[in-house]
Design goal:
The structure holds two protein chains of two kinds.
Chain A (H helix, E strand, L loop, with lengths): L1 H13 L13 E9 L2 E9 L5 E6 L15 H10 L1 E5 L8 E2 L8 H19 L4 E7 L1 H10 L2 H4 L4 E5 L8 H17 L4 H12 L8 H20 L12 H7 L4 H19 L15 E6 L7 H10 L5 E6 L6 H4 L1 H14 L1
Parallel strand pairs in A: 3-4, 3-6, 6-7, 7-8, 8-9
Antiparallel strand pairs in A: 1-2, 2-4, 2-5
Helix pairs in contact in A: 2-13, 3-4, 6-7
Chain B lengths: L1 H16 L1 H10 L6 E7 L7 E8 L4 E20 L2 E2 L4 E2 L3 E20 L3 E15 L4 E15 L3 E5 L5 E5 L2 E16 L11 E9 L11 E10 L2 H12 L1
Antiparallel strand pairs in B: 1-3, 2-3, 2-13, 3-6, 4-5, 6-7, 7-8, 8-11, 9-10, 11-12, 12-13
The chains are: A alpha/beta, B alpha+beta.
């Protein structure tokens, strides 16, 4: 009996409140929680903090998670972390984030405020002289755009990197035009004829000025389906490098049931907020160095949208890179090219 | 003539083929009715202890300790005579015992979700267990718990005026209704063991309320062993008597 209690006590100490892994600034392994307006948002900071450059991954969704860019896309995160300190942040109602907050907090302004506070904490922890870059993917692109159009806020960051970022959720006609153009080309080439015909016919029958929520949802779903067809015919590549699906799913901080519920709840709450969002006109107030990276075959946030955003951006120092064999996620489709572009650009700034 | 012979042969064949069926009909008339005996065993206050490996989702480390109090135990003994249909053979009557347990369980678990948080759970649940042949069990449970989580890294709360408050070991609590299922093996008849108990594998769906903006879903799994500790039972019984 005494032995049993000793073993139990020892086990409790072992699995008890252990601190972060040991790390040095060349290979920082830090973890903290950002608490803002009722949400507890975990943040992992990993990589080369000696570079004094911090790249915040603003994940997609809404309701996605930061760990996909870290533990899952192993080669991508390793490559980036050699150069800079990467900040993997689970946004409000996403990934592992928790806390207690009211559903009324699901607004773009709240998310912008969360990002602002995160940047403040990074500068507090790692020095005010640290350079912070925001890399927004998909919905993350919307968030960093909403953040950067505020002049006071944009001065806190050194660069704006939009990766297939949806700065204009409202512009579904761009999506429809892209489906029609690429769809007809694929039908002519004899690729997945029946499937593309269904998509093109759906688009042809839509009233662009009077889209229902169901139409918008269907367009979004078709976007991912269409990319799978393009992947099958090698128009889109799958060169993500090593992925760690097993470790990501079962051995990392990522908790699948929690993350999926978060995604469902956040997505449904934010849909009403985002469906009329369009920041194109305000992008002229973005004056900081800007990098736009877009997949040529992005069927979710098409290249046409990227071109519009790039043209509207008010930065003198701006660059648009089109990944020729990528869809909505160039860090998966052409990981090497994508990461080289980001690394070289961040080093320049 | 040939037609008559054919009919005679066919009749004999039919009579021979129907013999098992006729035997069955005859024997059925003699079968005793199924005899089922139900007894309610007076449950001794034994307060067993259940300990084991506990993990959120799949592979994170944790430990669980609980005490399932059996408040009702129902034994069902069934005597049956069975027949092999086509042979009309009686086989020996077999006795089968089924046991149903109703338990209330008080438990506590501690777990560490790697690279994220440490959690502690306190829960109370009702469990319904059925035990069958050679101690095999399956069970369902429903209960409620309280989960407290601690973030091992620092928690930063930034106020609107820009001041940042830093806190070690930030924490949150959640009330969690839960439902569980599992299988087990009661090794009471295993003479080789000094203290034979029950091995159980359990999976629990827990629903932390107000996780973020609504309820969430967590999955907890455990591998536990239940054994009786006389001193522990005596201690609890003495406390209750007081």
């Amino acid at each position: 009996m005494k032995t049993q209690f000793k073993i139990t006590l020892f086990a409790l100490i072992l699995i008890g409140f252990s601190q972060c892994k040991k790390s040095n600034l060349n290979n920082l392994q830090d973890y903290f929680v950002l608490r803002n307006q009722g949400a507890d948002m975990p943040v992992w900071v990993e990589g080369n903090a000696n570079s004094k450059s911090f790249v915040i991954i603003v994940h997609g969704g809404p309701g996605g998670d930061g760990q996909i860019y870290n533990t899952y896309l192993k080669d991508f995160s390793d490559k980036m972390e050699k150069e800079f300190a990467m900040v993997y942040w689970d946004q409000r109602g996403s990934g592992n984030s928790g806390g207690h907050f009211d559903a009324s907090k699901y607004t773009t302004e709240t998310y912008v405020d969360d990002l602002d506070k995160l940047i403040d904490v990074i500068k507090l922890k790692y020095g005010n002289d640290s350079k912070v870059f925001v890399l927004g993917h998909s919905w993350g692109g919307t968030l960093i755009t909403a953040y950067s159009i505020d002049t006071k806020r944009q001065n806190k960051i050194s660069g704006y990197i939009a990766v297939d970022g949806a700065h204009d959720f409202k512009n579904n006609d761009v999506v429809i035009k892209t489906f029609q153009k690429i769809g007809n080309a694929e039908i002519a080439a004899g690729h997945f004829t029946a499937e593309w015909t269904e998509i093109v016919n759906f688009c042809n029958n839509l009233n662009v000025n009077n889209l229902t929520d169901s139409d918008i949802g269907q367009l979004n779903a078709y976007g991912f389906t269409a990319e799978s067809y393009l992947l099958s015919v090698d128009s889109i590549y799958n060169n993500s490098g090593k992925v760690n699906a097993g470790k990501f799913s079962f051995f990392s901080a990522y908790n699948m049931p929690v993350a999926k519920i978060n995604e469902m709840v956040t997505n449904s709450n934010m849909f009403a907020v985002l469906k009329n969002a369009d920041y194109t006109a305000q992008m002229s107030s973005i004056k900081i160095p800007s990098l736009f990276i877009w997949g040529k075959f992005d069927m979710v946030v098409p290249l046409l949208s990227g071109n519009t955003g790039f043209a509207a951006c008010g930065a003198a120092d701006k660059k648009l890179v089109v990944m020729q064999n990528s869809g909505h996620s160039p860090m998966i489709n052409e990981m090497e090219n994508f990461s080289n572009e980001v690394i070289n650009w961040v080093k320049l700034h | 003539m040939k037609k008559r012979q054919g009919l005679w042969i066919l009749s004999m064949l039919l009579i021979l083929a129907s013999k098992p069926l006729r035997s069955q009909i005859a024997d059925t008339a003699k079968i005793k009715k199924f005899k089922t005996v139900i007894t309610y065993k007076k449950v001794p206050q034994n307060w067993p202890l259940e300990v084991g490996y506990f993990t959120p989702f799949i592979f994170h480390s944790g430990i669980t300790v609980s005490t399932p109090f059996v408040y009702k135990e129902r034994h069902i003994t069934v005597n049956r005579m069975r027949l092999l249909r086509w042979a009309g053979i009686n086989i020996k009557p077999r006795k089968r015992e089924k046991i149903q347990f109703r338990t209330i369980e008080l438990g506590t678990s501690i777990f560490k979700q790697k690279e994220f948080m440490t959690g502690a759970l306190l829960n109370v649940k009702g469990k319904y267990t059925k035990q069958r042949y050679k101690g095999f069990q399956y069970f369902t449970s429903a209960g409620i718990g309280y989960m407290r989580i601690w973030y091992p890294g620092k928690v930063y709360a930034v106020k609107d005026d820009g001041t940042i408050k830093e806190k070690n070991l930030g924490t949150r609590g959640y009330i969690c209704p839960e439902l569980g299922i599992g299988i087990g093996w009661n090794m009471e008849n295993w003479k080789r063991l000094k203290n034979p108990g029950t091995l159980r594998i359990t999976s629990v769906a827990s629903y932390p309320l107000n996780y973020g903006s609504s309820a969430s879903f967590m999955n907890f799994n455990s591998l536990t062993y239940t054994f009786k500790i006389n001193k522990f039972s005596q201690f609890i019984n003495n406390k209750i008597k007081k």
